[in-house]
Amino acid sequence: MNASKKMASLAVHALEEKKASDIKIIDIEKVSTLADYFIISSGSNRNQVQAMADAVEEELGRAGFEPKHVEGYRTANWILMDYGDIVLHIFDEENRVFYDLERIWRDGESIIKEQLEEE
To answer: Which of 90, 84, 106, 100 is nearest to 40 (CA)?
Structure first.
């Protein structure tokens, strides 16, 4: 498993552990040089959104991956976590609907978690 798939798989697992809703994994490797994967998820309130970001940072940190940049943690309406090969967008429900990243990145391939675990 390559590093970006491993990071994405670990991040999704951490989000699931914190009961993230509507986790979307978008493979953007063929349409952008920004990253290989965008992972988009939602939390129902500020505390859950922050807990989701904390869980991702902890899980990826244990595997040796450190974020290049984290933005929006304090307000927690949209936390962006840039790990280079993967970028996580953790939203509260209202801002997720407003920004609608899935529509903006519809040229990417929507994949399921099990595809990350394939070689």
So the answer is: 90
Q: How deeply is 98 buried, as exposed, middle or buried, from its count of CB atoms within 10 A (0-12, 13-18, 19+)? A: exposed
Q: What is the pLDDT of residues 82-108, one digit of tens each?
A: 999 999 999 999 999 999 999 889 899
Strand segments (E) across 1-119: 21-27, 37-43, 69-71, 78-82, 86-92, 109-111
End-to-end CA distance of the chain: 5
119: pLDDT strictly greater than 70? no
Q: Where are the domains positioned within the chain?
A: 3-114
What is the DSSP-derived secondary structure letter of residue 119?
-
- Which CATH number applies to 3-114? 3.30.460.10
Percent of the chain with pLDDT over 90: 81
